[in-house]
């Protein structure tokens, strides 16, 4: 068989190329376009090079928002991942109880973001909100519009309530996929409950956890509607996260150049963190250098 | 070290069993002697894995007792039974190295680390795992993984029996014989009772000294591979062991004797007596294809049969022929050729067996 040389076959990928162009490349290039120019009106514009990027990186308000953003994402990951695993381990394995618990657990995931914000906004009010009223009755002067600590704790609690079910569901499916023989072998090997978790369940959950952590990181790093509705970014700017800063700048102040530069930085940070995280996890699963695959085979 | 006895054991997955068919294991009493190499052979769904899980303690029998050295262990969980089990699919601890995998059962019972190292080295040596000890178990091939899971059973020196549940299913054919030989070697070296579940008669007969053939939740015969071949105690054994399986001729019992259709079959009068006494009309004559004598010429007591097909299998061939409308088979040696449409067959009496209600009957001193 001789190989047929026919470059017209490249045309076959054209539809895909067009689709990707409209869904990703063109919007992204528009942003790039704005980020390197200062646009006054349809006819007046100046090329600014990396100026907007430098301004953005040196902006102390944005730096603070970025730090806040990282603090938020890491905090909710640190709570939601172990909690999700724990819930998945406790969920019933079969029967109607399993279905009932699955539905109950999934409910928060079905609520739209700004509705979650509204629910919690009302829930935490000191006068008519059950939680706000309850905490005040216990003697603590809880107030998310005055006290930054209260605001933070509430936003974190809200996110944990909204998104831990996702981790729990992923882990539950991962746990169900472990063949019974593993548990049987562990019993015969006299493994403790902890050893079963550490050496069978956790390793088998690695893949779903990678997906779960990546999703949760990206999601939480882009969080907007929930804190916006609940606290409006306050008190002060204590709960103003990156996307809210960006919206204020782009929509509120119409600063297209700086916000475009900021968007790109924002995007690259998410990309970078996700990549580092993914690579680190994947490397953990490889053989250590002392026994590479080829060496002793 | 233990002798494993199953005493009036039965098991059902149904909460309210009505008939014997509801039982995965029908009532049986069986002894596995200390140090024996046994196989549990049977088709899928005959209850052999259930039986194995009852012995290891993963399942509680619904009736009867499991006795280890005259101690009833029904209530004991697997971890207290000093038993190791190797599963169909290799079970290894992914994130651990091969060394840690082998050390795991010892570390779980807080064995001193020096002793752990000594035992692991010994077992790794037997299983040819020494070069792999520092590798992550996850990256091994299927046969290496299966050796690791076997090794975990061997490291504990309190293990009195190892149970294998079709352990070679996922192993490449060319590696199977190697692993099987390894198993035999281990058996000879340690004085461990081994019970090996399989549906492959070749695997069973190369591994085991004695084979228990299971059929519909019952052990229908327990014997050496040779006994299973020469004297199948049950028609199922005749059919399941051997390739092709045993020929069966359905007999009609009359006052004067047995006949196959219109063909009278000469039979020991004492056997005829048994057939009469049983009152059953399920009487069969069985003969293995290997024992059917085939001649080209008419001889004494031969029957002429029509040749249907001859299948050449290299070193031997299988002759299919028709007798009274029933298709039967005979195995022919390499040099033995049958030309022509008809052959003359004889069923030597020493190799024919009589089955009443599917079970072999015999009379003394034959």
TrEMBL record, chain A:
Its main location: membrane. Keywords: Membrane, Transmembrane, Transmembrane helix, Transport. It is found in: Cell membrane. Residues 66-277 form the ABC transmembrane type-1 domain. PROSITE patterns: ABC_TM1. Belongs to the binding-protein-dependent transport system permease family. This is ABC transporter permease. It comes from Halomonas heilongjiangensis. The lineage of its organism: Bacteria, Pseudomonadati, Pseudomonadota, Gammaproteobacteria, Oceanospirillales.
From TrEMBL, chain B:
SMART domains: AAA (SM00382). Keywords: ATP-binding, Cell membrane, Membrane, Nucleotide-binding, Transport. It comes from Halomonas heilongjiangensis. One of its GO terms (cellular component) is ATP-binding cassette (ABC) transporter complex, substrate-binding subunit-containing. Coiled coil: none annotated. Residues 4-241 form the ABC transporter domain. One of its GO terms (molecular function) is ATP hydrolysis activity. Signal peptide: none annotated. It holds the Pfam family ABC_tran. This is ABC transporter ATP-binding protein. InterPro entries: AAA+_ATPase (IPR003593), ABC_transporter-like_ATP-bd (IPR003439), ABC_transpr_FbpC (IPR015853), ABC_transpr_MalK/UgpC-like (IPR047641), Mo/tungstate-bd_C_term_dom (IPR008995), NA-bd_OB-fold (IPR012340), OB_MalK-like (IPR040582), P-loop_NTPase (IPR027417).
């Amino acid at each position: 068989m001789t190989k047929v040389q026919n470059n017209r076959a490249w045309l076959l990928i054209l539809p895909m190329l067009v689709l990707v162009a409209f869904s990703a490349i063109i919007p992204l290039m528009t942003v790039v376009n704005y980020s390197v120019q200062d646009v006054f009106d349809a006819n007046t514009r100046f090329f600014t090079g990396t100026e907007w990027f430098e301004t953005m990186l040196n902006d102390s308000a944005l730096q603070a928002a970025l730090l806040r953003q990282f603090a938020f994402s890491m905090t909710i990951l640190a709570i939601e991942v172990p909690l999700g695993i724990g819930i998945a381990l406790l969920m019933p394995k079969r029967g109607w109880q399993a279905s009932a618990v699955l539905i109950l657990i999934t409910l928060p995931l079905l609520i739209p973001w700004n509705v979650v914000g509204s629910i919690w906004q009302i829930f935490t009010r000191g006068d008519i909100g059950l939680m706000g009223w309850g905490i005040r009755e216990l003697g603590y002067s809880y107030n998310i519009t005055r006290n930054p600590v209260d605001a933070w704790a509430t936003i974190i609690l809200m996110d944990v309530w909204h998104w831990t079910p996702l981790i729990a569901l992923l882990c539950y499916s991962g746990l169900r996929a472990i063949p019974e023989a593993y548990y049987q072998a562990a019993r015969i090997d006299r493994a403790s409950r902890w050893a079963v978790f550490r050496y069978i369940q956790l390793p088998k959950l690695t893949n779903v956890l990678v997906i779960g952590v990546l999703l949760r990181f990206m999601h939480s790093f882009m969080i907007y509607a929930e804190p916006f509705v609940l606290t409006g970014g306050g008190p002060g700017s204590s709960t103003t996260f990156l996307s809210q800063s960006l919206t204020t700048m782009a929509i509120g102040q119409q600063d297209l150049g700086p916000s475009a530069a900021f968007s790109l930085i924002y995007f690259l940070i998410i990309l970078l963190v996700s990549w580092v995280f993914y690579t680190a996890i994947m490397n953990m699963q490889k053989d250590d250098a002392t026994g590479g695959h080829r060496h002793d085979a | 070290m233990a002798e494993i006895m199953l005493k009036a054991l039965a098991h059902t997955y149904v909460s309210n069993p009505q008939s014997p068919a509801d039982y995965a294991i029908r009532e049986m009493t069986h002894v596995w002697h200390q140090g024996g190499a046994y196989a549990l052979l049977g088709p899928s769904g005959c209850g052999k894995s259930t039986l194995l899980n009852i012995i290891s303690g993963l399942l509680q029998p619904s009736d009867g007792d499991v006795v280890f050295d005259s101690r009833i262990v029904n209530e004991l969980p697997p971890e207290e039974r000093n038993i190791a089990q190797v599963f169909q699919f290799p079970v290894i601890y992914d994130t651990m190295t091969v060394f840690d995998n082998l050390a795991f059962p010892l570390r779980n019972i807080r064995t001193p680390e020096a002793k752990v190292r000594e035992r692991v080295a010994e077992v790794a040596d037997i299983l040819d795992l020494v070069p792999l000890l520092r590798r992550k178990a996850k990256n091994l091939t299927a046969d290496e993984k299966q050796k690791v899971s076997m090794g975990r059973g061997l490291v504990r020196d309190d293990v009195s029996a190892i149970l294998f549940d079709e352990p070679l299913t996922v192993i490449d054919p060319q590696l199977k014989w190697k692993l099987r030989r390894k198993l035999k070697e281990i058996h000879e070296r340690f004085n461990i009772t081994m019970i090996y579940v399989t549906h492959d008669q070749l695997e069973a007969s190369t591994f085991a000294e004695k084979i228990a053939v299971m059929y519909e939740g019952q052990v229908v015969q327990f014997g050496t591979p040779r006994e299973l071949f020469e004297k199948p105690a049950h028609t199922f054994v005749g059919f399941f062991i051997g390739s092709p399986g045993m020929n069966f001729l359905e007999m009609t019992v009359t006052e004067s004797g047995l006949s196959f259709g219109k063909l009278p079959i000469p039979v020991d009068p004492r056997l005829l007596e048994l057939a009469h006494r049983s009152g059953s009309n399920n009487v069969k004559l069985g003969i293995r294809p290997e024992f059917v004598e085939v001649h080209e010429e008419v001889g004494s007591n031969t029957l002429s049969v029509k040749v249907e097909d001859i299948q050449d299998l290299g070193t031997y061939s299988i002759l299919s022929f028709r007798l009274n409308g029933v298709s039967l088979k005979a195995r022919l040696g390499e040099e033995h050729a049958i030309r022509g449409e008809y052959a003359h067959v004889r069923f030597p009496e020493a190799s024919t067996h009589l089955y009443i209600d599917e079970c072999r009957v015999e009379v003394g001193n034959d």
